[in-house]
Amino acid sequence: MNVAQALASATAELATTSPEPEVDAKWLLADVLDCELTRLILDRAKVLSDVQCQQYHDFIARRAAGEPVAYITGRRGFWSIELQVNTSTLIPRADTECLVDYALQLSLPAKASVLDLGTGTGAIALALAAENPSWAVTAVDKFAEVVALARANQQQLQLKNVSIFQSDWLDSVDGEFDLITANPPYIDSLDPHLAQGDVSFEPKSALVAAESGLADIHTIARGARQHLVNGGVLVVEHGYQQGRAVRQIMQDYGYDQVETGQDFGRNDRFTSAHWRVNLP
């Protein structure tokens, strides 16, 4: 079987189960062949080995059963970096790049101190650190296996300006920061989307929060006040229908300059707020 035949067969097999069967078929074959997507076009007549055919067949069967492509390949591109992923945490989403872009445009000190809460793969923290080698970035997560994954990504990217350790939100964090970011669980436990698509394979601990999905955002907004410098900024990702509620939470905890940013689909996706200490 050559590349063209493999792609045609896989696309047909995924037609009823994947929202993007041709795209998935290409990504999975590129992973099997350890090549760029463009090589699939240039090498359409290349014949797959028996081992490659079997691996590709296994990959397509897993995708047909609903497993996310990123969990199958063990990697996902985010911002300008590639990250290892596994089932211990969420797969980085493209829309979270909008939060990163916003953070990079803030007027922060040249040697800013940054904290990323619930870091998961390390996506936000490592993207910020890669863009700003002079920033001191700290990243924390509640779960040891997730911390290990984020550290593996840090080592893979050879980023020296990042410290990663275990903490349940801010419980084990010391010091003050110019910027605190977070992509916490924000889905209500009764949301039907939890049983659909890629989300159904991801850990509920990284998805679901009490109080209609807002409990962890409350915890972060309340606790971050003790860890932001005067004028520091908190930026939190949330659901597309939660913008108004999150703005109210920030205001209730005394933040100002509260505003909500949009994702690539122009949906509310993150809210930022400034913390100012009333000095005498």
Automatic annotation (TrEMBL):
Its EC number is 2.1.1.297. Residues 5-74 form the Release factor glutamine methyltransferase N-terminal domain. Keywords: Methyltransferase, S-adenosyl-L-methionine, Transferase. It is an enzyme of class 2 (transferase). S-adenosyl-L-methionine binds at residues 118-122, 141, 169, 183. It catalyses: L-glutaminyl-[peptide chain release factor] + S-adenosyl-L-methionine = N(5)-methyl-L-glutaminyl-[peptide chain release factor] + S-adenosyl-L-homocysteine + H(+). One of its GO terms (biological process) is methylation. Substrate binds at residues 183-186. Residues 108-190 form the Methyltransferase small domain. One of its GO terms (molecular function) is peptide chain release factor N(5)-glutamine methyltransferase activity. InterPro entries: HemK-like, N5-glutamine_MTase, PrmC_N, RF_methyltr_PrmC, SAM-dependent_MTases_sf, Small_mtfrase_dom. Transmembrane segments: none annotated. Coiled coil: none annotated. It comes from the Bacteria. PANTHER family: HEMK METHYLTRANSFERASE, MTRF1L RELEASE FACTOR GLUTAMINE METHYLTRANSFERASE. HAMAP family: RF_methyltr_PrmC. Belongs to the protein N5-glutamine methyltransferase family. PrmC subfamily. Methylates the class 1 translation termination release factors RF1/PrfA and RF2/PrfB on the glutamine residue of the universally conserved GGQ motif. This is Release factor glutamine methyltransferase. The gene is prmC.
